[in-house]
Specification:
single chain; 530 residues; TIM Barrel; eight-stranded parallel barrel; amino-acid biosynthesis
Length: 530
Amino acid sequence: MADRIYLFDTTLRDGAQTTGVDFSVADKIAIAEALDEIGIDYVEGGWPGANPTDDTFFTEPPKLKGAKLVAFGMTRRPGRSAENDPGLAPLVNSKANALCLVGKAWDFHVDVALEIEHDENVAMIRDSIAFGHARKGEAMYDAEHFFDGYKANPQFALKCITAAYEAGARWIVLCDTNGGTMPDEVERIVREVSKHVPGDHLGIHAHNDTEQAVANSLAAVRGGARQVQGTINGLGERCGNANMMSLIPSLMIKMGFDTGISPVNLKKLTHLSRMLDERLNRAPNRHQAYVGESAFAHKGGLHVSAVAKDPKTYEHVEPECVGNRRHIVVSDQAGRSNLLARLDDLGIEMPGEDKIRLLLDSLKQQEFKGYAYDGAEASFELLARKAMGEVPVYFRLSRFRVMDDRRWSARGELVTESEATVTVKVKEEEVMRVAMGNGPVNALDVALRQALVECYPTLQHMHLVDYKVRIMPPRADGTGTDAVTRVVIESADAEGHRWSTVGVSANIIDASYVALRDAYTYMLYREGVR
Protein backbone atom coordinates (compact mmCIF):
# COMPACT_ATOMS: atom_id res chain seq x y z
CA MET A 1 0.00 0.00 0.00
CA ALA A 2 1.39 3.41 -1.05
CA ASP A 3 2.45 5.87 1.65
CA ARG A 4 0.02 8.71 2.26
CA ILE A 5 1.11 12.27 1.50
CA TYR A 6 -1.12 15.02 2.91
CA LEU A 7 -1.65 18.11 0.76
CA PHE A 8 -1.85 21.58 2.31
CA ASP A 9 -2.85 24.40 -0.04
CA THR A 10 -1.95 27.94 0.97
CA THR A 11 -3.13 29.81 -2.16
CA LEU A 12 -5.59 31.93 -0.19
CA ARG A 13 -2.95 33.04 2.32
CA ASP A 14 0.60 32.77 0.99
CA GLY A 15 -0.60 33.00 -2.62
CA ALA A 16 -2.40 36.24 -1.78
CA GLN A 17 1.01 37.84 -1.16
CA THR A 18 1.73 37.69 -4.90
CA THR A 19 2.26 41.11 -6.44
CA GLY A 20 -0.92 42.11 -8.26
CA VAL A 21 -3.12 39.46 -6.61
CA ASP A 22 -6.02 40.65 -4.49
CA PHE A 23 -8.62 38.02 -3.63
CA SER A 24 -12.18 39.06 -2.89
CA VAL A 25 -14.28 37.07 -0.42
CA ALA A 26 -16.12 35.55 -3.40
CA ASP A 27 -12.77 34.50 -4.90
CA LYS A 28 -11.72 32.85 -1.66
CA ILE A 29 -14.96 30.91 -1.36
CA ALA A 30 -14.86 29.69 -4.96
CA ILE A 31 -11.20 28.65 -4.78
CA ALA A 32 -11.64 26.90 -1.43
CA GLU A 33 -14.58 24.92 -2.80
CA ALA A 34 -12.62 23.99 -5.95
CA LEU A 35 -9.68 22.74 -3.84
CA ASP A 36 -12.07 20.77 -1.66
CA GLU A 37 -13.70 19.23 -4.73
CA ILE A 38 -10.50 17.69 -6.07
CA GLY A 39 -9.52 16.27 -2.66
CA ILE A 40 -6.99 18.62 -1.01
CA ASP A 41 -6.57 17.75 2.70
CA TYR A 42 -6.02 21.26 4.11
CA VAL A 43 -7.12 24.63 2.74
CA GLU A 44 -5.48 27.59 4.47
CA GLY A 45 -8.03 30.37 4.26
CA GLY A 46 -6.03 33.30 5.57
CA TRP A 47 -5.25 35.13 8.81
CA PRO A 48 -8.30 36.04 10.93
CA GLY A 49 -7.81 39.46 12.48
CA ALA A 50 -5.29 40.59 9.84
CA ASN A 51 -7.67 42.27 7.36
CA PRO A 52 -11.41 42.72 6.66
CA THR A 53 -11.43 40.21 3.78
CA ASP A 54 -10.10 37.36 5.93
CA ASP A 55 -12.38 38.36 8.81
CA THR A 56 -15.42 38.18 6.52
CA PHE A 57 -14.28 34.90 4.99
CA PHE A 58 -13.90 33.19 8.37
CA THR A 59 -17.15 34.63 9.68
CA GLU A 60 -19.13 32.65 7.07
CA PRO A 61 -16.66 30.19 5.56
CA PRO A 62 -17.65 27.74 2.82
CA LYS A 63 -18.91 24.34 3.91
CA LEU A 64 -16.10 22.06 2.79
CA LYS A 65 -16.92 18.38 2.29
CA GLY A 66 -13.54 16.79 2.95
CA ALA A 67 -10.85 19.42 3.39
CA LYS A 68 -10.04 21.02 6.72
CA LEU A 69 -10.20 24.81 6.75
CA VAL A 70 -7.06 26.21 8.38
CA ALA A 71 -6.55 29.61 9.99
CA PHE A 72 -3.01 31.02 9.94
CA GLY A 73 -1.40 33.16 12.62
CA MET A 74 1.62 33.71 14.86
CA THR A 75 2.70 32.18 18.13
CA ARG A 76 1.99 34.22 21.24
CA ARG A 77 3.88 37.43 21.92
CA PRO A 78 6.78 37.53 24.39
CA GLY A 79 5.70 38.10 27.97
CA ARG A 80 2.06 37.11 27.42
CA SER A 81 0.16 33.92 28.04
CA ALA A 82 -1.40 32.21 25.05
CA GLU A 83 -4.84 32.56 26.63
CA ASN A 84 -4.49 36.36 26.83
CA ASP A 85 -2.74 36.98 23.52
CA PRO A 86 -4.81 39.26 21.23
CA GLY A 87 -3.31 37.69 18.12
CA LEU A 88 -4.34 34.15 19.01
CA ALA A 89 -7.88 35.03 20.06
CA PRO A 90 -9.28 35.56 16.51
CA LEU A 91 -7.75 32.24 15.44
CA VAL A 92 -9.21 30.06 18.15
CA ASN A 93 -12.55 31.86 17.96
CA SER A 94 -12.80 31.47 14.18
CA LYS A 95 -14.80 28.78 12.40
CA ALA A 96 -11.60 27.14 11.13
CA ASN A 97 -11.10 23.40 11.75
CA ALA A 98 -7.37 23.70 12.42
CA LEU A 99 -4.63 26.27 13.11
CA CYS A 100 -1.22 26.82 11.56
CA LEU A 101 1.05 28.96 13.75
CA VAL A 102 4.31 30.42 12.50
CA GLY A 103 7.23 30.92 14.86
CA LYS A 104 10.96 31.57 14.68
CA ALA A 105 13.34 28.62 14.29
CA TRP A 106 16.54 30.55 13.47
CA ASP A 107 18.50 31.85 16.47
CA PHE A 108 19.64 34.86 14.41
CA HIS A 109 16.04 36.10 14.16
CA VAL A 110 15.38 35.47 17.83
CA ASP A 111 18.45 37.52 18.74
CA VAL A 112 18.06 40.36 16.24
CA ALA A 113 14.34 40.63 15.41
CA LEU A 114 12.63 39.50 18.62
CA GLU A 115 15.49 40.37 21.00
CA ILE A 116 14.40 37.74 23.52
CA GLU A 117 16.02 34.77 25.23
CA HIS A 118 16.15 31.53 23.29
CA ASP A 119 14.19 29.72 25.99
CA GLU A 120 11.39 32.29 25.77
CA ASN A 121 11.06 31.66 22.03
CA VAL A 122 10.79 27.91 22.66
CA ALA A 123 8.18 28.56 25.35
CA MET A 124 6.19 30.76 22.96
CA ILE A 125 6.03 27.87 20.51
CA ARG A 126 5.14 25.28 23.15
CA ASP A 127 2.43 27.41 24.80
CA SER A 128 0.80 28.48 21.53
CA ILE A 129 0.65 24.99 20.05
CA ALA A 130 -0.73 23.52 23.28
CA PHE A 131 -3.38 26.27 23.42
CA GLY A 132 -4.33 25.84 19.76
CA HIS A 133 -4.46 22.06 20.10
CA ALA A 134 -6.71 22.30 23.15
CA ARG A 135 -9.11 24.78 21.52
CA LYS A 136 -9.24 23.47 17.95
CA GLY A 137 -8.14 19.86 18.17
CA GLU A 138 -5.45 20.29 15.51
CA ALA A 139 -2.56 22.73 15.49
CA MET A 140 0.50 22.91 13.25
CA TYR A 141 3.79 24.71 13.68
CA ASP A 142 5.35 26.54 10.72
CA ALA A 143 9.06 26.60 11.55
CA GLU A 144 10.06 29.83 9.82
CA HIS A 145 13.49 29.85 8.10
CA PHE A 146 14.03 26.35 9.46
CA PHE A 147 16.73 25.26 7.01
CA ASP A 148 18.81 28.40 7.52
CA GLY A 149 18.33 28.05 11.25
CA TYR A 150 19.28 24.36 11.23
CA LYS A 151 22.47 25.02 9.28
CA ALA A 152 23.41 27.86 11.66
CA ASN A 153 22.46 26.23 14.97
CA PRO A 154 20.93 22.74 14.66
CA GLN A 155 20.52 22.33 18.44
CA PHE A 156 18.30 25.40 18.74
CA ALA A 157 16.28 24.64 15.58
CA LEU A 158 15.61 21.11 16.85
CA LYS A 159 14.64 22.45 20.27
CA CYS A 160 11.97 24.63 18.61
CA ILE A 161 10.34 21.85 16.60
CA THR A 162 10.52 19.23 19.37
CA ALA A 163 8.78 21.69 21.71
CA ALA A 164 5.93 21.97 19.20
CA TYR A 165 5.77 18.20 18.73
CA GLU A 166 5.67 17.54 22.46
CA ALA A 167 2.93 20.19 22.84
CA GLY A 168 0.68 18.22 20.49
CA ALA A 169 1.38 19.65 17.02
CA ARG A 170 -0.07 17.41 14.33
CA TRP A 171 2.41 18.74 11.79
CA ILE A 172 5.82 20.38 12.11
CA VAL A 173 6.28 22.24 8.84
CA LEU A 174 9.89 22.91 7.84
CA CYS A 175 9.97 26.17 5.92
CA ASP A 176 12.53 27.14 3.30
CA THR A 177 11.34 30.71 3.70
CA ASN A 178 13.85 32.45 1.42
CA GLY A 179 13.91 29.60 -1.12
CA GLY A 180 17.69 29.32 -1.04
CA THR A 181 18.21 25.71 0.08
CA MET A 182 19.33 23.08 -2.44
CA PRO A 183 17.41 19.79 -2.92
CA ASP A 184 20.26 17.60 -1.61
CA GLU A 185 20.44 19.75 1.54
CA VAL A 186 16.67 19.51 2.04
CA GLU A 187 16.64 15.72 1.79
CA ARG A 188 19.64 15.33 4.11
CA ILE A 189 18.28 17.71 6.76
CA VAL A 190 14.78 16.19 6.70
CA ARG A 191 16.32 12.73 7.24
CA GLU A 192 18.29 14.06 10.21
CA VAL A 193 15.24 15.83 11.65
CA SER A 194 13.11 12.68 11.32
CA LYS A 195 15.33 11.08 13.97
CA HIS A 196 13.84 13.59 16.44
CA VAL A 197 10.32 14.12 15.04
CA PRO A 198 8.61 11.26 13.16
CA GLY A 199 8.28 11.76 9.42
CA ASP A 200 4.51 11.32 9.58
CA HIS A 201 4.48 14.57 11.57
CA LEU A 202 6.82 16.52 9.25
CA GLY A 203 5.80 18.86 6.45
CA ILE A 204 7.64 20.98 3.88
CA HIS A 205 6.90 24.57 2.83
CA ALA A 206 9.23 25.60 0.01
CA HIS A 207 9.61 28.92 -1.78
CA ASN A 208 10.76 29.16 -5.38
CA ASP A 209 13.56 31.74 -5.28
CA THR A 210 16.03 29.35 -6.95
CA GLU A 211 13.35 27.74 -9.17
CA GLN A 212 13.54 24.59 -7.04
CA ALA A 213 10.48 24.73 -4.79
CA VAL A 214 8.91 21.63 -6.38
CA ALA A 215 12.25 19.80 -6.38
CA ASN A 216 12.83 20.73 -2.74
CA SER A 217 9.34 19.53 -1.80
CA LEU A 218 9.88 16.18 -3.51
CA ALA A 219 13.31 15.90 -1.87
CA ALA A 220 11.70 16.47 1.52
CA VAL A 221 9.24 13.67 0.79
CA ARG A 222 12.15 11.38 -0.09
CA GLY A 223 13.68 12.41 3.22
CA GLY A 224 10.55 11.32 5.09
CA ALA A 225 8.19 14.33 5.22
CA ARG A 226 4.55 13.42 4.74
CA GLN A 227 2.84 16.78 4.37
CA VAL A 228 3.51 19.05 1.38
CA GLN A 229 2.47 22.70 1.19
CA GLY A 230 2.07 24.70 -1.99
CA THR A 231 -0.19 26.95 -4.06
CA ILE A 232 -2.16 26.74 -7.29
CA ASN A 233 0.11 27.75 -10.18
CA GLY A 234 2.91 28.47 -7.70
CA LEU A 235 1.49 31.79 -6.50
CA GLY A 236 3.39 33.50 -3.71
CA GLU A 237 5.54 36.47 -2.78
CA ARG A 238 8.75 37.15 -4.70
CA CYS A 239 9.22 34.10 -6.97
CA GLY A 240 6.31 32.13 -5.56
CA ASN A 241 5.71 28.90 -3.69
CA ALA A 242 5.91 25.24 -4.63
CA ASN A 243 3.45 24.69 -7.47
CA MET A 244 0.66 22.26 -6.56
CA MET A 245 -0.07 21.74 -10.26
CA SER A 246 3.33 20.05 -10.60
CA LEU A 247 3.58 18.56 -7.13
CA ILE A 248 0.35 16.59 -7.19
CA PRO A 249 0.90 14.63 -10.43
CA SER A 250 4.60 14.16 -9.67
CA LEU A 251 3.80 12.66 -6.27
CA MET A 252 1.05 10.45 -7.69
CA ILE A 253 2.27 9.42 -11.13
CA LYS A 254 6.04 9.64 -10.83
CA MET A 255 6.56 8.60 -7.21
CA GLY A 256 3.52 6.42 -6.60
CA PHE A 257 2.27 8.12 -3.43
CA ASP A 258 -1.35 8.24 -2.27
CA THR A 259 -2.40 11.90 -1.97
CA GLY A 260 -6.07 11.31 -1.28
CA ILE A 261 -6.86 12.58 -4.79
CA SER A 262 -8.54 10.01 -7.04
CA PRO A 263 -7.50 9.51 -10.68
CA VAL A 264 -10.88 10.99 -11.65
CA ASN A 265 -10.23 14.16 -9.67
CA LEU A 266 -6.66 14.37 -10.94
CA LYS A 267 -8.22 15.05 -14.34
CA LYS A 268 -9.64 18.29 -12.89
CA LEU A 269 -6.15 19.71 -12.30
CA THR A 270 -5.91 21.65 -15.56
CA HIS A 271 -9.36 23.13 -15.03
CA LEU A 272 -8.41 24.20 -11.48
CA SER A 273 -5.26 25.89 -12.76
CA ARG A 274 -7.10 27.86 -15.43
CA MET A 275 -10.04 28.66 -13.18
CA LEU A 276 -7.67 30.48 -10.82
CA ASP A 277 -6.14 32.46 -13.69
CA GLU A 278 -9.59 33.44 -14.92
CA ARG A 279 -10.61 34.70 -11.48
CA LEU A 280 -7.40 36.75 -11.29
CA ASN A 281 -7.77 38.07 -14.85
CA ARG A 282 -4.36 36.63 -15.66
CA ALA A 283 -3.25 34.98 -18.87
CA PRO A 284 -2.43 31.32 -18.12
CA ASN A 285 1.19 30.24 -18.42
CA ARG A 286 1.06 28.23 -21.64
CA HIS A 287 4.33 26.48 -20.80
CA GLN A 288 3.46 25.41 -17.27
CA ALA A 289 4.27 21.74 -16.64
CA TYR A 290 1.37 19.28 -16.80
CA VAL A 291 -1.44 21.86 -17.12
CA GLY A 292 -0.15 24.48 -19.60
CA GLU A 293 -1.72 24.79 -23.03
CA SER A 294 1.65 23.92 -24.58
CA ALA A 295 2.61 21.19 -22.10
CA PHE A 296 1.65 18.56 -24.68
CA ALA A 297 1.87 20.64 -27.85
CA HIS A 298 3.67 19.33 -30.91
CA LYS A 299 4.41 21.52 -33.87
CA GLY A 300 5.30 19.87 -37.16
CA GLY A 301 8.31 17.89 -38.25
CA LEU A 302 9.69 14.71 -36.70
CA HIS A 303 7.98 15.24 -33.33
CA VAL A 304 4.49 15.05 -34.80
CA SER A 305 5.39 12.01 -36.84
CA ALA A 306 6.80 10.26 -33.78
CA VAL A 307 3.86 11.24 -31.59
CA ALA A 308 1.44 9.89 -34.18
CA LYS A 309 3.13 6.48 -33.96
CA ASP A 310 3.71 6.45 -30.21
CA PRO A 311 2.65 9.40 -27.98
CA LYS A 312 4.99 8.25 -25.21
CA THR A 313 7.94 9.25 -27.38
CA TYR A 314 7.62 12.94 -26.42
CA GLU A 315 5.03 12.85 -23.63
CA HIS A 316 6.09 11.78 -20.15
CA VAL A 317 2.46 11.22 -19.06
CA GLU A 318 -0.86 10.97 -20.85
CA PRO A 319 -2.29 14.51 -21.14
CA GLU A 320 -5.79 13.33 -20.22
CA CYS A 321 -4.72 12.05 -16.80
CA VAL A 322 -4.30 15.66 -15.59
CA GLY A 323 -7.20 17.03 -17.62
CA ASN A 324 -5.01 18.45 -20.37
CA ARG A 325 -4.92 17.53 -24.05
CA ARG A 326 -2.48 16.77 -26.79
CA HIS A 327 -2.32 19.65 -29.22
CA ILE A 328 -1.09 19.11 -32.75
CA VAL A 329 -1.56 22.17 -34.90
CA VAL A 330 -3.06 20.29 -37.84
CA SER A 331 -5.42 18.16 -35.71
CA ASP A 332 -9.18 18.81 -35.74
CA GLN A 333 -9.71 16.37 -32.85
CA ALA A 334 -7.93 18.49 -30.22
CA GLY A 335 -10.01 18.79 -27.09
CA ARG A 336 -12.57 16.01 -27.76
CA SER A 337 -11.64 13.92 -24.72
CA ASN A 338 -11.49 17.06 -22.58
CA LEU A 339 -14.98 18.02 -23.73
CA LEU A 340 -16.38 14.56 -22.99
CA ALA A 341 -14.87 14.61 -19.49
CA ARG A 342 -16.50 17.97 -18.72
CA LEU A 343 -19.85 16.77 -20.07
CA ASP A 344 -19.57 13.68 -17.90
CA ASP A 345 -18.99 15.88 -14.81
CA LEU A 346 -22.21 17.73 -15.62
CA GLY A 347 -24.14 14.50 -16.19
CA ILE A 348 -24.73 15.36 -19.85
CA GLU A 349 -24.75 12.54 -22.37
CA MET A 350 -24.53 13.79 -25.95
CA PRO A 351 -26.69 11.72 -28.33
CA GLY A 352 -24.33 10.68 -31.08
CA GLU A 353 -21.01 11.64 -32.59
CA ASP A 354 -22.53 14.36 -34.79
CA LYS A 355 -23.78 16.32 -31.76
CA ILE A 356 -20.37 16.03 -30.08
CA ARG A 357 -18.61 17.31 -33.19
CA LEU A 358 -21.03 20.22 -33.56
CA LEU A 359 -20.58 21.18 -29.91
CA LEU A 360 -16.81 20.95 -30.21
CA ASP A 361 -16.87 23.18 -33.30
CA SER A 362 -19.09 25.66 -31.49
CA LEU A 363 -16.76 25.65 -28.50
CA LYS A 364 -13.74 26.33 -30.71
CA GLN A 365 -15.54 29.19 -32.44
CA GLN A 366 -16.45 30.74 -29.09
CA GLU A 367 -12.90 30.41 -27.79
CA PHE A 368 -11.63 32.01 -31.00
CA LYS A 369 -13.85 35.01 -30.23
CA GLY A 370 -12.28 35.29 -26.77
CA TYR A 371 -14.55 33.15 -24.60
CA ALA A 372 -13.03 31.02 -21.86
CA TYR A 373 -15.20 28.59 -19.94
CA ASP A 374 -12.80 27.37 -17.24
CA GLY A 375 -14.01 30.13 -14.95
CA ALA A 376 -17.60 30.15 -16.24
CA GLU A 377 -19.07 26.69 -15.81
CA ALA A 378 -22.67 27.88 -16.05
CA SER A 379 -22.10 29.36 -19.51
CA PHE A 380 -20.40 26.14 -20.60
CA GLU A 381 -23.33 24.04 -19.38
CA LEU A 382 -25.77 26.30 -21.22
CA LEU A 383 -23.72 25.99 -24.41
CA ALA A 384 -23.83 22.20 -24.16
CA ARG A 385 -27.52 21.98 -23.28
CA LYS A 386 -28.48 24.43 -26.04
CA ALA A 387 -26.71 22.14 -28.50
CA MET A 388 -29.13 19.43 -27.37
CA GLY A 389 -32.15 21.75 -27.61
CA GLU A 390 -32.82 21.63 -23.87
CA VAL A 391 -32.71 25.34 -22.98
CA PRO A 392 -35.77 27.48 -23.79
CA VAL A 393 -35.48 31.08 -24.94
CA TYR A 394 -36.87 32.79 -21.86
CA PHE A 395 -36.60 36.33 -23.24
CA ARG A 396 -35.17 38.31 -26.13
CA LEU A 397 -33.48 41.67 -25.84
CA SER A 398 -34.85 44.26 -28.25
CA ARG A 399 -32.53 47.08 -27.20
CA PHE A 400 -30.80 48.69 -24.26
CA ARG A 401 -29.27 52.08 -23.58
CA VAL A 402 -26.97 53.04 -20.71
CA MET A 403 -26.06 56.60 -19.73
CA ASP A 404 -23.66 57.95 -17.13
CA ASP A 405 -24.11 61.38 -15.57
CA ARG A 406 -21.20 62.96 -13.69
CA ARG A 407 -22.11 66.23 -12.02
CA TRP A 408 -21.85 68.41 -8.91
CA SER A 409 -24.82 68.35 -6.60
CA ALA A 410 -26.42 71.38 -4.96
CA ARG A 411 -24.34 70.58 -1.88
CA GLY A 412 -21.14 70.78 -3.90
CA GLU A 413 -20.62 67.01 -3.89
CA LEU A 414 -19.41 65.11 -6.94
CA VAL A 415 -22.12 62.66 -8.01
CA THR A 416 -21.86 59.93 -10.66
CA GLU A 417 -25.11 58.24 -11.64
CA SER A 418 -25.87 55.49 -14.15
CA GLU A 419 -29.20 54.98 -15.85
CA ALA A 420 -30.20 52.02 -18.00
CA THR A 421 -33.20 51.60 -20.29
CA VAL A 422 -34.00 48.11 -21.56
CA THR A 423 -36.67 46.69 -23.82
CA VAL A 424 -37.12 42.93 -23.77
CA LYS A 425 -39.63 40.55 -25.29
CA VAL A 426 -41.04 38.14 -22.71
CA LYS A 427 -43.73 35.63 -23.72
CA GLU A 428 -44.55 37.62 -26.87
CA GLU A 429 -44.96 40.85 -24.90
CA GLU A 430 -42.51 43.75 -25.08
CA VAL A 431 -41.56 45.21 -21.72
CA MET A 432 -39.55 48.41 -21.18
CA ARG A 433 -37.98 49.39 -17.88
CA VAL A 434 -35.72 52.23 -16.70
CA ALA A 435 -33.51 51.92 -13.62
CA MET A 436 -30.73 53.75 -11.81
CA GLY A 437 -27.70 51.89 -10.51
CA ASN A 438 -24.30 52.07 -8.91
CA GLY A 439 -22.44 51.99 -12.20
CA PRO A 440 -23.65 51.05 -15.69
CA VAL A 441 -23.61 47.27 -15.17
CA ASN A 442 -25.60 47.49 -11.94
CA ALA A 443 -28.12 49.80 -13.64
CA LEU A 444 -28.44 47.35 -16.54
CA ASP A 445 -28.91 44.44 -14.13
CA VAL A 446 -31.60 46.29 -12.14
CA ALA A 447 -33.52 47.30 -15.28
CA LEU A 448 -33.37 43.78 -16.74
CA ARG A 449 -34.46 42.24 -13.45
CA GLN A 450 -37.43 44.59 -13.25
CA ALA A 451 -38.46 43.67 -16.77
CA LEU A 452 -38.22 39.92 -16.16
CA VAL A 453 -39.28 39.39 -12.56
CA GLU A 454 -43.02 39.77 -13.26
CA CYS A 455 -42.94 36.70 -15.49
CA TYR A 456 -40.13 34.93 -13.61
CA PRO A 457 -40.49 35.74 -9.88
CA THR A 458 -37.65 33.37 -8.97
CA LEU A 459 -35.16 35.92 -10.34
CA GLN A 460 -35.83 38.23 -7.40
CA HIS A 461 -33.85 35.79 -5.24
CA MET A 462 -30.76 36.09 -7.43
CA HIS A 463 -28.00 38.64 -6.87
CA LEU A 464 -24.59 39.43 -8.34
CA VAL A 465 -21.63 38.48 -6.18
CA ASP A 466 -18.59 39.37 -8.24
CA TYR A 467 -17.71 41.06 -11.53
CA LYS A 468 -14.41 40.82 -13.41
CA VAL A 469 -13.24 42.40 -16.64
CA ARG A 470 -10.31 41.41 -18.80
CA ILE A 471 -9.21 43.21 -21.94
CA MET A 472 -8.06 40.62 -24.46
CA PRO A 473 -5.08 41.57 -26.67
CA PRO A 474 -5.83 42.66 -30.25
CA ARG A 475 -5.85 39.83 -32.78
CA ALA A 476 -4.69 40.65 -36.29
CA ASP A 477 -6.37 37.76 -38.09
CA GLY A 478 -7.71 39.42 -41.17
CA THR A 479 -11.08 40.15 -39.57
CA GLY A 480 -10.02 43.17 -37.52
CA THR A 481 -7.48 44.23 -34.96
CA ASP A 482 -9.71 45.69 -32.21
CA ALA A 483 -9.25 44.28 -28.73
CA VAL A 484 -12.26 42.60 -27.16
CA THR A 485 -13.46 42.59 -23.56
CA ARG A 486 -14.22 39.46 -21.56
CA VAL A 487 -16.56 39.84 -18.60
CA VAL A 488 -17.10 37.13 -15.97
CA ILE A 489 -20.00 37.55 -13.55
CA GLU A 490 -20.55 35.43 -10.46
CA SER A 491 -24.13 35.14 -9.22
CA ALA A 492 -25.80 33.54 -6.21
CA ASP A 493 -29.29 32.67 -5.02
CA ALA A 494 -30.87 32.85 -1.58
CA GLU A 495 -29.59 29.37 -0.67
CA GLY A 496 -25.99 30.37 -1.41
CA HIS A 497 -25.63 28.41 -4.64
CA ARG A 498 -23.12 30.19 -6.90
CA TRP A 499 -22.50 30.11 -10.63
CA SER A 500 -20.33 32.03 -13.09
CA THR A 501 -21.09 33.20 -16.61
CA VAL A 502 -19.03 34.86 -19.33
CA GLY A 503 -19.64 37.42 -22.05
CA VAL A 504 -17.33 38.72 -24.78
CA SER A 505 -17.68 41.80 -26.96
CA ALA A 506 -15.72 44.79 -28.18
CA ASN A 507 -18.07 46.81 -25.95
CA ILE A 508 -17.78 46.24 -22.20
CA ILE A 509 -21.49 46.87 -21.53
CA ASP A 510 -22.52 44.48 -24.28
CA ALA A 511 -20.16 41.83 -22.88
CA SER A 512 -21.72 42.42 -19.46
CA TYR A 513 -25.19 41.95 -20.91
CA VAL A 514 -24.21 38.60 -22.45
CA ALA A 515 -22.88 37.40 -19.08
CA LEU A 516 -26.03 38.67 -17.33
CA ARG A 517 -28.27 36.96 -19.88
CA ASP A 518 -26.54 33.65 -19.22
CA ALA A 519 -26.79 34.18 -15.48
CA TYR A 520 -30.58 34.68 -15.63
CA THR A 521 -31.02 31.82 -18.10
CA TYR A 522 -28.98 29.42 -16.00
CA MET A 523 -31.00 30.14 -12.86
CA LEU A 524 -34.31 29.76 -14.68
CA TYR A 525 -33.23 26.50 -16.28
CA ARG A 526 -31.87 25.14 -12.99
CA GLU A 527 -35.11 26.03 -11.24
CA GLY A 528 -37.04 24.02 -13.82
CA VAL A 529 -38.78 26.97 -15.47
CA ARG A 530 -39.98 25.97 -18.93
